[in-house]
Amino acid sequence: MDSKAAEAVAADFPEESMLPSRARRLRFWAMISAWVVALVLIAVVGGALREALVDVSPAVEQESFSTPTIYLTSPPSPAAATDQPPIDPAPASASVPAGAVAPHPQPAYRTLAIKLLALMPIKAVQSAAGYQRSKFGAAWLDVNNNGCDTRNDILRRDLSNVKPTLDGHDCLVQSGQLSDPYSGDTVVFDRKNPATVQIDQAVSLSDAWRKGGQGLSLAQRIAFANDPLNLNAVAAKTALSKHNADASAWLPTEMDDRCSYVARQLSVKVSYGLWLSQDEHDVMAAVLANCPQTLAPSNRTASSKQLGGPMADDAQQPLIAPESSSALPSGGQSGLSTSSAPPSPENGSEQAEPASAQATAQQSSSAQQSTPVQISPMSTTTPFLPTALPTLPECSTPPSPSASPQPEPSSPESIQPGPSPSTPNPGPTS
């Protein structure tokens, strides 16, 4: 550095002029190194943030357009997955015991779900102590002796575009497409990844155990776990989000789906002598108040023809008969009246409702008005994994009195009709 440059530096930076030349050089290179390190860190952090934004954006977009699952109280615990049924059928050594039928018939033909609700017993929830899935038998069994396990029976019933396996075993589903009855999502099923579609119990095994299921025999619990009335093919994420919740803790998002979902639960609980908790009853009443004409699903029709099925042998029993069945809890309502008949073929009109049923329904209606239930979600969450309860013919609005009821179509995979409780069993025909 010449003398003039040194004088200029000394004038501008007097402190620099006081440092030895070696110290000044070291300070200069230290500053350069610090700037280089800072630039490198900025580049690294900026790249990481950019990649994170690219990865997260699709997930955020998908979540914003997905249908939320509604919890009325709280979502299930992470342990929910441990109670999921297996994918494969039970081993060939697993047999169906005698008496694997429901202790009661399904509701009478064209029973309104809201009137069925008014006659349901309400009791405290029992402890879950002793509950294990094995208490309801191995899954999945061939309870209807058609050569196929229950899981594949339900897959063939609920999936569209079903293709069987190529090994000559027509009952095993290789692929198909599912419209989830609870979320409306479309799920492509392939046997190579069967866990994407689960078979869900509308009334869960755990809920049944705590509300009367402990009083059922093992054979009756096996019938419950394999009853097509209680089963739906759903997406795995839906099965996990619903898990073992009752209606007070979980409902489908759409109101129409809620109506058919609640009506199905009532039919199942009637057939197996199960009761409701007070919270469960109140939420069901609030749901059905928006769709009072919803019918309870049933395999019984006005024709009173019995075509078989898991509940065929009990068709003559009263709808709810706590006096004759230890499986139904004591207390609460005594049961449905079996005096109401199906529509008369002569005039096509519905029979008048029994006076006792009307009075009970009025009491239920007044109770709903005095204690309104808010069923809006307390919290929402996007389902954990990937599909809605198919609209059942039984859950549609009843025809007007001037229209004659049309006979309901039957199919090998649908719930089969049974005789009315007031009609004697015709017995086997030649």
UniProtKB/TrEMBL annotation:
Alphabetized UniProt keyword annotations: Membrane, Transmembrane, Transmembrane helix
The keyword Membrane appears for this protein: yes
GmrSD restriction endonucleases C-terminal domain location: 149-286
Originating organism: Psychromicrobium silvestre
TM stretches of this protein: 28-49
Record flagged with keyword Transcription regulation: no
InterPro entries tied to this protein: GmrSD_C (IPR011089)
Start-end of Low complexity biased regions: 90-100, 349-372, 380-395
Protein name as annotated: GmrSD restriction endonucleases C-terminal domain-containing protein
Disordered, as annotated region: 74-100, 322-430
Domain of life where this protein originates: Bacteria
Compositionally skewed regions (Pro residues) per UniProt: 396-410, 418-430
